[in-house]
């Protein structure tokens, strides 16, 4: 099996998924618990997930296939920062005090390696209409959906690099083979330090 690395133009705006906008969302309250934000209002949690863009995951129902789920919703810090920046989420601590966006980002930097670059990629993908979830089980930063978990399979695995990172060829081969085995495209992404734009590279494997 051989692989070719080339600049990908696959990341166009996704016509199948709605981009969440400030004027479209109702502000929801979430509580910061460790490295996650939990929405306890089940009705609002349902609306945010099914009508807002598949943010977070429900307790005990990770990939619901029907919109009748009434459970608390757990948001990643990527989700929480993104929604808070758009005025869609107010985050409180366990004492009921407001948590600022800057404080959320500081926490995220302690929880996630290379958070700032990863969040820039997350925000770029969300802005193009894609649903972005953790890709940890695949050894990547994000798993990216066109429609959403429970509806379609994630066609892309995106691994975020720091611009100055050195590529390990063995790790690239391992990740490429894994993505090939699960029928997904393996993509490298980084934030260009000159213009701030996100660049995507994709491996294409062939026999």
Descriptive tags:
26% strand; 207 residues; tRNA_endonuc-like_dom_sf; MutS, DNA mismatch repair protein, domain I; globular; five-stranded mixed beta sheet; alpha+beta; 5 helices; 11 strands
Order of helices and strands: EEEHEEHEHHEEEHEE
User: What is the fourth-level CATH superfamily?
Assistant: tRNA intron endonuclease, N-terminal domain
Helicity range = 25-40%
Structural class: alpha+beta
How much strand?
A: 25-35%
Poorly predicted tracts of residues: 1-9
Largest sheet: 6 strands, mixed
Would you kindly provide a written description of the structure presented here, covering whatever features stand out?
- With 207 residues, the chain is α+β, with helices and mostly antiparallel strands.
- The chain has one domain (2-206): MutS, DNA mismatch repair protein, domain I, CATH 3.40.1170.20.
- Helix content is 28%, strand content 26%.
- The strands form 2 sheets. It has a 6-stranded mixed beta sheet. Strands 4-5-3-2-6 form a 5-stranded mixed beta sheet, covered by helices on one side.
- Strand 9, helix 5 (169-181) and strand 10 form a beta-alpha-beta unit.
- Helix 2 (77-85) packs antiparallel against helix 3.
- 33% of the residues are buried.
- Residues 1-9 have low confidence and may be disordered.
């Amino acid at each position: 099996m051989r692989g070719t690395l080339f600049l990908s133009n696959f990341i166009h705006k996704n016509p199948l998924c709605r981009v969440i906008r400030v004027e479209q969302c109702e502000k929801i309250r979430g509580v910061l618990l460790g490295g996650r934000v939990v929405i306890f209002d089940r009705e609002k949690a349902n609306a945010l997930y099914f009508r807002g863009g598949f943010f977070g995951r429900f307790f005990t129902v990770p990939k619901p296939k029907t919109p009748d789920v009434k459970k608390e919703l757990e948001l990643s810090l990527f989700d929480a920062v993104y929604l808070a920046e758009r005025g869609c989420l107010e985050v409180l601590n366990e004492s009921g005090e407001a948590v600022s966006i800057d404080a959320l980002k500081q926490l995220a930097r302690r929880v996630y390696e290379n958070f700032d670059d990863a969040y820039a990629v997350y925000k770029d993908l969300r802005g193009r209409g894609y649903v972005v979830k953790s890709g940890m089980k695949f050894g990547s930063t994000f798993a990216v959906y066109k429609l959403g978990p429970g509806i379609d399979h994630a066609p892309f695995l995106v691994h975020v690099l720091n611009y100055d990172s050195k590529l390990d060829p063995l790790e690239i081969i391992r990740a490429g083979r894994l993505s090939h085995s699960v029928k997904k495209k393996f993509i490298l992404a980084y934030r260009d330090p000159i213009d701030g734009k996100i660049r995507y590279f994709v491996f294409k494997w062939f026999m």
